[in-house]
Amino acid sequence: MGAAARFILRRKGGKGWHWTDIVTWVWLIGGLIIMFGPAMWLAFSSFKTPAALNEFPPSILPYVTSQATVQGYDKPLQLFEAKMPDGTTKVLAEVRRIGLVAQMVDPTTPGEIIKVNMNDRTPVRSVSFATENYTEPFTQFDFLRYLWNSVFVTVVATLITLIVNSMAAFALSKYEFTGRNLAMFVILATLMVPLSVIMVPLYSIISTLGMFNSLWGVILPTVATPTGVFILRQYMLTIPDELIDAARMDKASEWQIYWRIVLPLTAPALAVLAIFSVVWRWNDFLWPLIVLSRRELYTLQVGLSIYSGELNVQWHFILAMTVVTMIPVVLVFIFLQRFITTGIAGTGLK
Amino acid sequence: MGEIKLTDVNKSYGSVHVLKDINLHIKDGEFVVFVGPSGCGKSTLLRTIAGLEKITAGEIQIDRKRVNETSAADRGLAMVFQSYALYPHMSVRQNLAFGLENSSMPKAEITERIGEAARMLEIDQYLDRRPGQLSGGQRQRVAIGRAIVRRPTAFLLDEPLSNLDAELRVSTRAEIAALHTRIGSTMIYVTHDQVEAMTLAHRIVVMRAGKIEQVGTPLDLYNEPANRFVAGFIGAPHMNFLKAEVAAVELGTVTLTIGGGHKLLVPLSGHKLKVGDKVTVGIRPQHITLAADPGSLTVKTRLVEALGSETVIHADLHGEKLLAVVQGQKQIGSGDEVHFSVAGAPLHLFDENGLRVKSA
Amino acid sequence: MTSTTTSSHLGALLMAPVNALMRVVDIPLRGLQKSTGIGGMAAFFLAPNMLIFGIFVLLPLFINIVYSTTGGTAFFLSERSFVGTEQYQRLFTCTNYLDPMSCQEDAFWTAVGNTFWFVVLQVALMILVSLVTALILNRDLIGRSFWRAVFFFPVLLSPVVVGLIWKWILQRQGLLNFILYEIGNVTPYTWLTDRNWTFIATIGVSIWAHMGLYTLILLAGLQAIPKDLYEAAEMDGTKPARVFWRITLPLLAPNLLVVVVLALIKAVQIFDEVYVLTGGGPGTSTLYLTQYIYETGFASALRNPGLAAAASILMGLVLVVLTLMQLGLGRKNENKGKR
Predict the structure, then answer these.
(1) How large is the ipTM?
(2) CB contact under 8 A, A248 and B85
């Protein structure tokens, strides 16, 4: 441990500690807590029962108060650890509370009531994960449906994005034709058209096409991403034109050149776009919120926001479903983090 | 059959005219080399024959059929590219099979053809490797193999040796020549290296600035270059060019005056030269010999390179450069005065337009 | 060797039906290629993307302008009546231009004001935090990629999740109150019902969610500064503060400008996480422009798509100016690189 600490805190050139080193480590540790803490807190909370969620001050781990059924009482009674006048402690069940005095019984000898001062007893608690927070929304609410809708939208939109964008990128990188620069300009220009600027007319177009309250209405407007065309085109420009000439001499049709030569060679860029697209579509909120008004069509994001906006928020379910919603993105982050960060640093795109 | 005929072929990109009135008839089984400096249009000409580029005017025929509108895939030709253009994501076997699969050939025949080509090129043991795992020379063989399995009417080779090192280039050159003898198909070969052209070609097509300068056998081009450009391009080191003036015209001989008042006698008849005409006389460095008598060309050496078997002398003749390659080792230093003789050497005369003054 | 061959066999097995499909697709496409030539195939490859693009991006852009000149609550253009510049006039009718409440469309001006202060404060603070983080991550640090990942993590989270995480923390029984209670025995406070605190919360949460992206871009910029410049400065005995002001900052300036504009563009459009966190409230204290457009266009009972379109066009103009600035900066940097 000491050696490890010395290794981590070692300074270049064996110099002493400078005030900037202290700032650095305070900033990093603080960052670690602020960046990871909230999500961890949410994840821990998601395993608590509604009663535990309402406690203040809250505990980090999900505790439940132990209960016991005692002979002669209909309802299960809460168990407490009580300090007896002789200094020993005993586990007792509380029958009722009057002012500062609790009337308690020993579960082993239920007949005798023991009076204990409020401050001399602490609840017996044990760690217990309320997994029903996770199972119930799937069985009793529509969350399985929302999960499926989200998966459907994400997978289908990503597949269409990859195909449509790569075809366009192929045309824009490997063919000479009039209007190529115009097409490229139009695509780049629309990089600056965010959804919030066109949502009203876009909604009317979707309605006209009969795609209101349809997952296709969520998918289609998002798939022709200018970013995707741009990333793929830049990559395809690095594929030598002689390869395409060679394929033409080999009697390959243009479609085969696209499918058998260019697409396999663009695999790294396609992977980057696929990751981005999955994250984008999984996280989409405003547009699905506009297009989908029937509960059974909600995506996870829309479902979560609607449920959390209700008057009587069932936080135990909301928290669990938020964790479920986070899982794919966290997995992407854990396994592909390096890939993504270098990708963003290289292109400046998100 | 692999007969290719180009008639008045022209090609331009916008206002840039890259091929100008190309006329060429390549016979079946012929090995033709397009040679010229970079940017002369030789690769473009090859690509128009391949069908990878469209021509703007003229006609291309393959086996007497007009193919202007035929796509590259349907012209029945195969090409070997300068960068080899092997598909990096496919194994050698898949690279060879790709073209055959596209013409929906039965699997058995594909296997047979690949086996045959692999044996011929000695690449059997690499068939399951990817191009990235092969050396430059091996990749080159695969690229040739990909053309061979197609059994094309003609092979088009675009500077196939330029990515190899010098030693490998010489041995592969010999292999390509042997391959041509063995297969007997028409081959069109593009290079900027005149040595490759001289050693490989039945006929050489010398190009400059989109035009054909001369077509002929290697020795035709060497012995009777049609103009100054061809004369300078073919042969290494380059031919010497000296300014000259016609001093006397007699039956069968022309007497020229060159720098310093030296007189040269050139056997020539049936020409239109008159006394006083300005001409250029070309002498190949190998045709100059050292002479003892001061009556011949007296020059001052600037640099002497002793190569062992021969000696290269860079000399100065009244302000004009003169290069001589003489056999054996000579005791000459830089700055020495020596005497050159061109007696009996073939002298090439070019008129003011750079065209050869021909004997009738 | 064996494992790679098995995995490639598996891949081949999975790809077999797709490849078969592609071979079938190829037959009509070869026919198409025969009749249109190679140039026609270029159009074929471009068509799907441009079609989707045209219908769902370009067309709405033009319709938006028409929309903003029509009135009524109907969404179909044919059912809407032409009103000229009425919607714009409505947006700009105020008795006192310094007081949003005096305007006919007071919600719009409240949203504009909120968005303006949000953008200014959020971008300034976020760039500062990102810059400090990037400078720290650029130090000679053990486990740099781990630390970079720590700050980047929230960027991938969905805005809804971000909103919920913080809504949960800012609850009356939430973590923040707990910490304050533990430290200073502060009475639990309902942060999300206080006008001033919600505004601050939206700024803080959006910085938390997005700073990682800007840190990453700035870090890439810092790492592109040639090391020998620092070595030269060290040889000259330059003080660290002077190195920062005279070397690091000037060389980072192009990146910094791009990052600022990028952050401005995103901040102007803020919606998702705020909508989940505060719903624009309490009252209109965190009502931002996108939410105004959304509610005017769709959500409220008195919806007015024409007014929403007019407001979105005004917002679009701001974004166009910002984007042109970004493109201009990009070009300037490129030219610098060439010189």
Answers:
(1) 0.84
(2) no
